[in-house]
Write a structure and sequence with these properties.
This protein is 13% helix and 29% strand. By secondary structure, it is an alpha+beta fold.
């Protein structure tokens, strides 16, 4: 491997580690909550009421929830609150964890839609997995999918027949925790 190739790999590896361990990267994910599993709208550990209503997610938030939508307190008008003091916000899917519309302190609450199902994915920069991360064992540019870093991602299985007749001993193998 030439010096240029080694340097190129080092730079790539540094970018990869930064992406994985960033404040809103896969190691910051603390939960993916599918809304059709929560008909009452309550998500354990998250404030507000979250419901899927057709082509959008409806968030109902009160002042004590401490949520913000688009950078402003979620409990603020218009529209006026309901009789329980909750304000209603209609949300579509977010573009990514860095640009979520809903935040809760430093946490970003990503609204997503997969195969017609709505979910809220919580990203916490202070997540235990992120704090304990010490690097990636890597042999080349083969990548671990996001589900290797957090249980809150769907992990794809290869389709039948998509196998190799030998062991592939290269690529990212495991994350390293302190």
């Amino acid at each position: 491997m030439s010096t240029d190739a080694r340097q190129e790999w080092r730079e790539w590896h540094e970018r990869r580690v930064a992406a994985v361990s960033g404040p809103y990267g896969p190691l910051a994910v603390t939960g993916t909550h599918w809304l059709d599993d929560r008909p009452d709208g309550r998500i354990e550990g998250l404030p507000g009421l979250w419901t899927a209503e057709g082509d959008e997610v409806v968030l109902r938030a009160a002042a004590e929830d401490g949520l913000a939508v688009d950078g402003a307190p979620a409990a603020g008008g218009p529209p006026l609150p309901d009789r329980r003091g909750r304000y209603t916000h209609r949300l579509g899917p977010d573009g990514g964890p860095e640009t979520t519309r809903v935040t809760w302190g430093a946490r970003h609450l990503l609204v997503l839609r997969r195969e017609g199902r709505w979910a809220v994915r919580a990203h916490d920069p202070d997540a235990a997995a992120r704090r304990g991360f010490a690097g990636i064992v890597d042999f080349n540019r083969t990548l671990l999918p996001p589900c290797a870093f957090a249980d809150h991602f769907l992990c794809p299985f290869p389709p039948p027949g998509n196998t190799l007749p030998f062991a592939l001993r290269a690529g990212e193998r495991n994350r390293i925790d302190h």
